[in-house]
Fold each of these.
Amino acid sequence: MSVETPFRTTVTVVGMTCGHCTSSVQEEVGEVAGVRSVEVDLASGAVTVTADREIGRDEIEAAVVEAGYSLA
């Protein structure tokens, strides 16, 4: 996981295979308090979160698990 200023975090999600998968992850992570945007790259599994505050890996992981996937 990498964190950049101002509060951009990138994680890798495993198990996504289609556009519906990316939409599910984007929706769940987008509901985390303070999240401004979520970019998902299906090919690499990279999920980049831009937020108003530092978002912990545990918060992102909880949202990803809720969507039915896991972090690498």
Amino acid sequence: MGIVKINDQLHEDIRKASSVMVRSINAQAEYWIKVGMLAEANPSMTFSEIMREQMKQADVDLRKVIGG
């Protein structure tokens, strides 16, 4: 574990997003970092495609989750 310095406005944006997404501030920051890394590593994929692939890798059957 380490400390990452970010500006106050970004911290405030993370705090606000974390309350909407029902995540801790740290979990929200980690999520955004992971998604950003995945997006940079896969520039031709959309956000939805990245999330679908992550769910597939985690063996989550989205049809069961969304009732389809």
Amino acid sequence: MNQTDNQELLPQNDLLKSILADLRRTVREYTTATTESSCPAVRQLFTELTNSTLRLQGTLYELMKHQGIYTAPAPAPRQLLDSKLQEAEKTQQELRQFTERRTSRWTPHAHPANVEAHRPNVQAPYYI
């Protein structure tokens, strides 16, 4: 038996962190594919893949946290969260108003959207 057969290529902690990073990247890629899909069946497939990958990422994160490999960031102060939420709501309202102003100028010759409306693809990321 070769001496290198018993040696790890990467320590377990580094390997798990690498897998966790790959899962996060995969979720980003699936999310992009979901938002760019015009076919409902393809959109549904990528939504399911995203949710499945999020559950796997969450399970791995909890395992690593339980083993002390990955520590959770400190909780954000409630006041900071509330101010960020207010900023996001203000931006959303401004965008809605902008969109309404722009679409109210459309003539009867404007083209309808070529993609049918879809259900939101946001669900609980994972269950433990």
